[in-house]
Amino acid sequence: MQRLTELALASSPAGVFTRAEVAAWVRGSADAEAALVKRALAAGEVIRICRGLYCLGARYRDRPIDSLAIAQRIMGPSYVSLEAALAFHGWLPEAVETVTSVCDARSRQFQTPIGSFRFDRVPQRKLFADVSRVPRGDRQAAFIATPLKALADYVSVRRADWRGVEPLIESLRLPPECVAEIQPEQCSSLAANYRSQRVRRFLAGLGREVAGCRSR
User: Fold this and answer.
1) Cα torsion at 74, 106, 87, 129 (round to 10°)?
2) Is the pLDDT of residue 214 over 70?
3) Which of 44, 43, 39, 4 is nearest to 24 (CA)?
4) Which residues make Cβ contacts (< 8 Å) with residue 81, sequence separation at least 6?
5) Buried b (16+ CB within 10 A) or exposed e, 101-125
6) By the 8 A CB rule, do 81 and 64 touch?
7) pTM value > 0.70
8) In what order do the strands lie in the sheet with 131-137?
9) Average pLDDT over residues 114-141
10) Dihedral of CA 22/23/26/32: which sign?
């Protein structure tokens, strides 16, 4: 077993670590640190996720890498949203292959050994409005949008010209009982956070329709 693998097993419960953490563990020269990483990569004991971010190989982990928790470490600040957040909340019946997050930088996509990650820019007043920090075990956490915010981000990123509840059920095939959980006041509060008129129209229309359904 490579020395870096031993250090990661002892210091990183989730099996994910950065180059900066390696430097702190080794406390040697940059050349020694680079050689340690190179040997562990060549032996297949460590996998490079993206620049500066690594994980232990599968045989040194007792569970898969948590893709929701790792997303912000690939590119941050960001939070999990769109289909990935809807699936997490149980609002999307289909499996999600790409973890899509929202950021305030330019949009990027990463194809990594542990999965596909996409980061889309959505102009907002407060990036983390209506976002929760969700513990994921092994001292990890994921920043995940509420279902309503995930829908608003979807409208922004996909440029969906939606009005009301019907597109949510027909286009995304969201369960009606989940859509029924949306509160009109949440729509108006969240709309104020977005700069996109498209998103604000969507949330305003959704809020009106939900309120009308509840008044009947």
Assistant:
1) 100
2) no
3) 4
4) 100, 101, 102, 122, 144, 145, 149, 150, 153, 154
5) bbbeeeeeebebebbebbbbebebe
6) no
7) yes
8) 108-112, 115-121, 98-103, 78-80, 140-145, 131-137
9) 95
10) positive
